[in-house]
Write a structure and sequence with these properties.
The chain is α+β, with helices and mostly antiparallel strands and about 400 residues long. About 30% of the residues lie in helices and about 25% in strands. The chain contains eleven helices and 14 strands.
Amino acid sequence: MKISPLAPKSFPILPEIDGVKCHVAKAHYKEWDRCDLTYINFSPNTAVAGVLTKSKCASPEVMMCRKYLQHGTARALIVNAGNSNAFTGNKGQEAVDYIVNRVSKHINCNPNEVFVSSTGVIGVPLPIDKADHGLSKVFDAPAAHWQDTAAAICTTDTFPKGTSATAIVDGKKINIVAIIKGSGMIAPDMATMLGYIFTDALIDAKFLQEMLERANNNSFSCITVDSDTSTSDTVLAFATGKVQNTPLASFDDSGADAFFAALSQVCTDMAHMVVKDGEGASKFIEVNVNGAISDESAHIIAKSVANSPLVKTAIAGEDANWGRVVMAVGKAGETAERDLLQIGFGNYIVAKDGAAIEGFNETPVTEYLKSDHIEININIGLGEGISTVWTCDLTHDYITINADYRS
């Protein structure tokens, strides 16, 4: 598999999180010779929060996570790669029930403390025999490093994704580590693909949920690769409390702002990595909209531009076709006036006041579009609303990857 040209040079060195133990094994959910089953064990009283897909065809794993999140504690996480187990009826539910019950008995915890995620092909029930065999192997597997854990949750990803951040809370150093998988079927209506955040901070589950939702709004919910929202999108955050700081329960607590800043950073880092590994991607695109009538309106416009196949293919071809950006703004259905609109690529303004810049020299813009990080800047000229959405270009490789996805 060709690694994305936007991939980092190496996997980062990530700290261990006290109270978190990772294990991986081969369940062979697909015909591949790689680890595709992840088991993560948490110390007792680990708090959990999550954001989940709003797809009306969500997998049984998502439905169960949504239910179990109400209890606020976690002891284990199971991630199956290669089979999403979505749209699989009773057989799919039976597979998840089997996994949850077996794991809960193995570590002697309540079933509602076991969280399960699956990713891969839609419409094929998760084979219980493979799950059973895989669990037997992963329970006895040695502890896995973060890089191996991040690799085991991947499907069409070209590189494992991980990041970390620190914060000082109550005079103590707090660590946050995050891993994520995602490359295609990404236009999250909540979060993105499968992402997991681990911290040793002591924090109330309801407050962790509040912070994760806020961080999601400015990270995962601001990315798109192909305008498609997955049936399985899940981001879960686990806090073991092992640092034993004074518990965080609200933004009024000392250190809460620092923790939230670190949490927001890892969420943004992960979101960017998913876009940079977008299927077939060769360019990272930042769409900035300002001057809209509201932030919400700016966000809708930015997503319209970021999701446009014509805009994305123009960037792939390094073509400064600002008319396609105008088209995408106009189709968004939000308030806009042609003669107030301004379009720019990077620092180059190419159109304003309803027309191209007189005497516009396209040569430097074309040169700018050869870079692998492109900014599309749009001023609506009507208000104070702003938004940024991140996406990637659309190349021939995207078609190749998805035409062969099930084979």
